[in-house]
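Regression check, serine case 316:
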Amino acid sequence: MSSKILIIGACGQIGTELTTKLRELHGVDNIIASDINTRNLDLVNSGPFEIIDAKNYNAINDCCQQNNVKTVYLMAALLSATGEKYPMEAWDLNMNSLFHVLNLAKDKVIDKVFWPSSIAVFGPTTPRDNTPQHTICEPTTVYGITKQVGERWCEYYHDKYGVDVRSIRYPGIISHKAMPGGGTTDYAVEIYHEAIKKGKYECFLSENTELPMMFMEDAIIATVDLMHSPSDAVKIRSAYNLAAISFTPKQIFESIKKHMPEFTITYNPDFRQAIADSWPSSIDDNSARTDWNWKHNFDLETMTKVMLENLEKKYA
Ligand code: SER
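Current build output:
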């Protein structure tokens, strides 16, 4: 049996588009999408799909053993805003799912792991501008704590047990397909949907809150490129800083307004403001650019154009 790739959390914002890309690259039959439920019927009906709870070691192990899965992308997680509401659930899901997959690699059931980290590993004591790869990481959210600790475990499993685990500190990811769920950077997706649907948006962050962001297409290319790089090129086994664009709510509003002059915005910051204030405004990703030739393609203006074009069609 040819070796297969398993995506856990395939119905989520990144999982959905990662599944599509991996099916294109490796063939539909070689990619097993999985999630805790069947919320994305297009994805469920368009290739192999299994219901898997990322917290269930036996379910992941059985799927890998029965299908000759050799690579796992673990995309299931509770994000920053939801994590603050359900701290123990975030800890339980984010950490145990990672241990399950790392242990399968340690036990040589699988060969390779992708696990996403986040800019949430940083905190208020981190240098905010052009945040270095190696710097102070004192996260103040449960989500950030799980990602920071997860990075330490990834490096540990690589160094001690030879596990081939690779990771990226994703910034906020913007896409027009699956919605993000429960993150602090979600406003940068919602704003496009509300612009098309209602012509106005109430933003839960203040107008000058600058955060690192990236268009989905770039994030998927980065993920696939990192996973396809030769092992010795992957020098960082915690997680790579990754950057594309940084902007504020005001700047994304203005870029939408160029296409929709009637569009209006109001600002009503909530608890997510404190989370955003603890994160960097921009990221130094030179290690990724040097080690595996990462480069981004989309800036704010090109992203806005693609987002509006696609959402106009979706809501037409
Ligand atoms: N997009 C995530 C969040 O806002 C950051 O990794 O929680």
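Comparison notes: The chain has a mean pLDDT of 97. The pocket of serine is lined by residues 79-80, 118-120, 143, 170, 172, 183-185 (CB under 6 Å). No diff flagged against the previous build.
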